[in-house]
């Protein structure tokens, strides 16, 4: 207790007050700078979205790209502001910054050898953002795992799948990256019909369903182009497969595709187009006749079915 009292009374409060005022001013300036920076980046984000839309880019795509770029810029600039504030406060506290920076450089070199994976993650993240490969909100398949991008920074990529599971990928460990919603998406369909059907008539029916869907008030703003029918794609065991595609706005392919499937089923039922299922037909030679079965009513011996 005496030691604490002695240390307290030995403090030169008159000389310390100006330093405390300067430290407080540095903290206030750093906080104000961070606030103004956030406002500025928000305005810049809106400006980038408007510019992208003016250039013909899909609004959702422009918004995702701007949010990702501004989010990473906000992190980097905030780090610069607060590190600078910390260095000024240390200098005000009579701490020699020169030796501290030199020591930090040596420690940084030592850590560099042991943190190669971290450096690799940062470099990979930098190029992910620079090349506009993926943005927050994109539907992606990363190393075989599908999901929606929830977070992207210079170190990790965070993806949430359909079940709600969150998958975290270090950027340097991303071997394969497929973006399902870059600029536009597509619903690719493969419709199987019976071999007895007229494929030209079926194709015409599919195109009619696609045209009706394109003018529907609930879906016309989601579809970018007319439905494409590629034609007869393959001959399966019990079906002729017709393949095609519907181009949609990003992330709208599932909404459009489910409605398209519903309408195709109704149209096929109305026109009597058979959607086959696996079945087996037995033949007993070319001249064989169908085998007839009938139920005989009457007295039967006990135990005989």
Fold and architecture overview:
The chain has 305 residues and is of the alpha+beta class. It has 3 domains: 13-114, Helix Hairpins (Orthogonal Bundle); 139-179, SH3 type barrels (Roll); 185-271, 2-Layer Sandwich (Alpha-Beta Plaits), CATH 3.30.70. Helix content is 50%, strand content 17%. It has helices at residues 2-10, 13-54, 59-92, 97-114, 116-130, 199-215, 253-271; strands spanning 139-142, 145-152, 156-160, 166-170, 177-179, 185-193, 228-235, 240-248. The strands form 2 sheets. The protein has a 5-stranded antiparallel beta sheet. Strands 6-8-7 form a 3-stranded antiparallel beta sheet. A hairpin with a 5-residue loop joins β3 and β4 (166-170). α2 (13-54) packs antiparallel against α3 (59-92) and α6 packs across α7. The radius of gyration is 34 Å and the shape is elongated. The termini are far apart.
Notable characteristics:
305 residues, alpha+beta, Helix Hairpins, SH3 type barrels, Alpha-Beta Plaits, 3 domains, 7 helices
């Amino acid at each position: 207790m005496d030691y604490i009292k002695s240390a307290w009374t030995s403090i030169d409060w008159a000389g310390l007050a100006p330093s405390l005022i300067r430290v407080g001013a540095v903290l206030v300036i750093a906080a104000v700078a961070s606030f103004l920076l956030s406002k500025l980046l928000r305005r810049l984000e809106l400006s980038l979205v408007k510019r992208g839309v003016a250039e013909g880019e899909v609004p959702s795509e422009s918004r995702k790209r701007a949010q990702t770029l501004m989010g990473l810029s906000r992190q980097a600039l905030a780090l610069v502001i607060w590190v600078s504030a910390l260095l000024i406060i240390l200098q005000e506290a009579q701490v020699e910054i020169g030796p501290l920076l030199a020591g930090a450089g040596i420690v940084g070199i030592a850590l560099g050898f042991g943190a190669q994976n971290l450096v690799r993650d940062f470099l990979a993240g930098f190029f992910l953002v620079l090349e506009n490969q993926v943005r927050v909100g994109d539907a992606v398949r990363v190393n075989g795992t599908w999901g929606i991008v929830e977070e992207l920074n210079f170190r990790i990529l965070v993806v949430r799948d359909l079940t709600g599971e969150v998958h975290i990928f270090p950027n340097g460990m991303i071997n394969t990256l497929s973006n399902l919603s870059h600029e536009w998406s597509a619903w690719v369909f493969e419709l199987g019909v019976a071999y007895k059907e007229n494929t030209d008539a079926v194709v015409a029916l599919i195109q009619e369903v696609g045209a009706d869907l394109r003018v529907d008030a609930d879906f016309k703003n989601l579809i970018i182009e007319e439905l494409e029918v590629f034609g007869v794609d393959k001959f399966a065991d019990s079906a002729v497969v017709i393949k095609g595609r519907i181009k949609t706005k990003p992330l709208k392919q599932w909404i459009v595709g489910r409605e398209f499937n519903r309408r195709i089923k109704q149209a096929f039922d109305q026109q009597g187009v058979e959607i086959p299922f696996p079945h087996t037909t037995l033949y007993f030679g070319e001249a064989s006749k169908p085998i007839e079965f009938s139920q005989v009513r009457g007295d039967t011996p006990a135990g005989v079915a």
